[in-house]
């Protein structure tokens, strides 16, 4: 059974040496090496560096007899929240579960449609990230209790993403991505919520004295291939990384932003479901190593 990734006995340093089309493992493992180095700059967080160092060092693959492709069979994952490899594996699992659930959702709600919503706030200093996220979560609860939301939205899948703010090295840009399953009435007459309305509703929920940036778009999830691709894209965008790998691995500040962000979001959950989609995905701290292995992308 082939092995890959940093196995010195086999003199294989990169998975692409076995499978030239597979770059995901190598890219994420490279980012993990950078994050490990940055965590080592902090005495308090160096324990994460030790765990990341051992993450996915040896991968064991087997051949899928039906397709003749390599699939992951055995691996050790460090389960550090901001390890780029583990973050990627969790994302793959969530996406796989959503794709598996789609047929039953569409069978139960054949006339419902999907809307992709992104909600932002003013960028806070990363030292205020925890308080900002708590405020955003409270504001989301106020939003989903409004009459307009409840009358049009049957269920939701919402994730939190944090990136570096573009207005300073120690600034953060937290935002929500939400995939909304909306009722047929949403796109009819008074039921339709325009972008300007979403801005007003979110500002009111935030109790903000400014108009936050909001992006909303209907997902044309028709039964043909083009429609399916649009829905797949919306799912992948919603269930991508919680923190951009390039932001995690940025070395110019010797990990100052990463260290503070790690402390600020400790034990905060970044995924929420509600309505008819409630419980469709596991929170990240409940995902098992076995599930992270089984969510493997096939190696070309």
Automatic annotation (TrEMBL):
The keyword Glycoprotein does not apply. Pfam families: Rep_1 (PF01446). It comes from the Bacteria. Keywords: DNA replication. Belongs to the Gram-positive plasmids replication protein type 1 family. This is Replication protein. GO terms for biological process: DNA replication. GO terms for molecular function: DNA binding. The lineage of its organism: Bacteria, Pseudomonadati, Pseudomonadota, Gammaproteobacteria, Moraxellales. The keyword Manganese does not apply. Transmembrane segments: none annotated. InterPro entries: Rep.
């Amino acid at each position: 059974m082939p092995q890959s990734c940093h196995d010195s006995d086999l003199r294989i340093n990169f998975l692409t040496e076995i499978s030239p089309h597979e770059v995901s493992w190598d890219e994420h493992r490279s980012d993990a090496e950078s994050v490990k180095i940055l965590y080592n700059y902090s005495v308090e967080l160096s324990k994460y560096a030790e765990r990341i160092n051992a993450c996915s060092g040896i991968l064991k693959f087997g051949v899928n007899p039906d397709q003749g492709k390599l699939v992951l069979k055995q691996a050790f994952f460090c389960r550090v929240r901001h390890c780029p490899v583990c973050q990627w594996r969790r994302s793959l699992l969530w996406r796989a579960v959503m794709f598996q659930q789609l047929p039953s959702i569409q069978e139960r709600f054949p006339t419902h449609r999907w809307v992709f919503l992104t909600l932002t706030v003013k960028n806070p200093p990363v030292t205020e990230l925890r308080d900002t996220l708590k405020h955003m979560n409270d504001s989301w609860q106020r939003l989903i209790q409004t009459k307009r939301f409840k009358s049009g939205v049957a269920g939701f899948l919402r994730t939190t993403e944090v990136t570096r703010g573009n207005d300073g090295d120690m600034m953060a840009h937290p935002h929500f991505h939400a995939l909304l399953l909306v009722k047929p009435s949403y796109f009819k007459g008074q039921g339709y919520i325009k972008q300007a309305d979403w801005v007003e509703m979110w500002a009111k929920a935030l109790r903000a004295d400014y108009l936050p940036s909001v992006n909303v778009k209907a997902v044309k999830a028709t039964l043909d291939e083009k429609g399916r691709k649009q829905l797949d894209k919306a799912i992948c965008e919603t269930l991508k990384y919680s923190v951009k790998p390039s932001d995690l691995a940025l070395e110019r500040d010797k990990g100052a932003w990463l260290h503070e962000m790690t402390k600020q979001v400790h034990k905060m959950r970044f995924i929420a479901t509600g309505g008819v989609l409630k419980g469709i995905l596991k929170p990240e701290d409940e995902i098992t190593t076995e599930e992270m292995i089984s969510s493997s992308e096939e190696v070309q």
